[in-house]
Each structure stands twice: as structure tokens, then as C-alpha cells.
Design goal:
Distance between the termini: 34 Å
Radius of gyration: 18 Å
InterPro entries: BluB, Nitroreductase, Nitroreductase-like, Nitroreductase/BluB
Strand content: 5-15%
Protein name: 5,6-dimethylbenzimidazole synthase
Oligomer: single chain
Low-confidence stretches: none
Number of domains: 1
Shape: globular
Helix content: 25-40%
Mean pLDDT: 93
Strand order of the largest sheet: 1-2-4-3
Organism: Methylobacterium trifolii
Order of helices and strands: HHEHHEHEHEH
Structural class: alpha+beta
CATH topology: NADH Oxidase
CATH class: Alpha Beta
Length: about 210
């Protein structure tokens, strides 16, 4: 049975606090051994029925990357148009992706046709498959941070066209598109808070008793 002391718990707390959504990357390559260790951490994540439905796809082909960038730019322009005046201008000032700079792109899919787990836990909540993938993404993210890497989750994309351009099975659903690399700068506070988009709720954890 492992034993975790107070010093470890404090360090773990620092890891959680310094896990940021990174959009500004240095061009330095990510060591393959480090990337593999982070992926191994992701594979330790819990999953409904022990189904492990996550599928990580490294996007290295320049043409496919360019397609993803174009998808982001279309979606970003459409999103900006939904805001009025000052909020729209503030939105356009935000840097919401590091797609051009990040040395590593990972598309993370949920295999919704997987037979692993024999359907356990999914009859009443089939979305638990995708929740399992989110858990794997978080594990990867924390491991990457422990190695000094930054991760940015890009959700401003067209999921189905991205799935098609990456030539993966039809039953796979895009859950996350991750940019991975060394951050240009380090900040403990979220970028959206720092740039005046949305403050954090300072109440902390709200536990409701019933």
C-alpha cells in the first residue's frame, strides 16, 4: 500500500494549481519519452466498465494541421459574431488556441462502438463513455504539467469534419483537441481571468447537502 505524506500532498496541490490552459507555446520539440509517459498516465485513468474508450491520435501531417487551423478560424469568427459590441471586441482580443505554435497536436476521441466493458454502467448513462475520455485527458494534462509542459484544449472546432480529415472510424467521436508543448510563460491564474473575460468564483467548492 503506497503512503503519501504531507509534503507530497502539498506538491500535488501545487500541480493542480499550476495546471493551466496554455495557448502560447515555444517551438521546442517535446521529447518522445516524455510524451509517452504522459500518455501512459492517461491510460491509468478510470473508465466506465473498465472500457478505456479513449483513442489518442497524434496529428503531425501539415495538411491535416492546416485543415484544423482553418476549422478553428471559421468557428472562432462565427463565435465572435454571436457577441455584441464590447464583448465581441474583447472576444476577438483573446488568444484562444496555440494551434500554429504547438509542436504536438493530439486529437482525443471516444470509441463509442467499443465492446470493452460489455456495456457495464452505460445502459442508464451512455455518456459515461465520454466522461471516461475526459478523465483520461485530465490525467494526461496533469502528467504533462509535472514534466514542465503546457496543454491547451481547443474546443472551437468542427468535430465531424475534423474526424473525417483524420480518417478515423465513424464510431469515434471527438472529445478534445489538445495542443502540447513548452509554455512561453507561466501563470497561476487562468488566462481568461487575467484578460478580463470571466473571473473565478472565489467561493471555492460549493457542497450542497440534502
Amino acid at each position: 500500500m503506497p503512503s503519501f505524506d504531507d509534503a507530497f500532498r502539498r506538491t500535488l496541490g501545487d500541480l493542480f494549481a499550476w495546471r493551466r490552459d496554455v495557448r502560447r507555446f515555444r517551438p521546442d520539440p517535446v521529447a518522445e519519452t516524455v510524451l509517452r509517459e504522459c500518455l501512459a498516465a492517461a491510460h491509468l485513468s478510470p473508465s466506465v466498465g473498465n472500457s478505456r474508450p479513449w483513442r489518442f491520435v497524434r496529428v503531425a501531417d501539415p495538411a491535416r494541421r492546416a485543415f484544423v487551423v482553418a476549422s478553428f478560424e471559421r468557428c472562432n469568427a462565427a463565435a465572435a459574431a454571436t457577441y455584441a459590441d464590447a464583448r465581441r471586441a474583447r472576444y476577438r482580443d483573446l488568444k484562444l488556441a496555440g494551434l500554429r505554435e504547438a509542436p504536438v497536436h493530439l486529437a482525443v476521441f471516444c470509441d463509442e462502438a467499443t465492446e470493452a466493458g460489455h456495456g457495464l454502467g452505460r445502459a442508464t448513462m451512455p455518456e459515461a463513455l465520454r466522461y471516461s475520455v475526459v478523465g483520461a485527458v485530465q490525467s494526461f494534462w496533469l502528467a504533462a504539467r509535472a514534466f514542465g509542459l503546457g496543454v491547451g484544449w481547443v474546443s472551437i472546432l468542427e468535430p465531424e469534419p475534423v474526424r473525417t480529415i483524420l480518417d478515423v472510424p465513424e464510431a469515434w467521436r471527438l472529445v478534445a483537441y489538445l495542443c502540447v508543448g513548452t509554455p512561453q510563460e507561466e501563470h497561476r491564474d487562468p488566462e481568461l481571468e487575467r484578460h478580463g473575460w470571466q473571473d473565478r468564483d472565489e467561493r471555492g467548492l460549493v457542497l450542497i447537502e440534502r
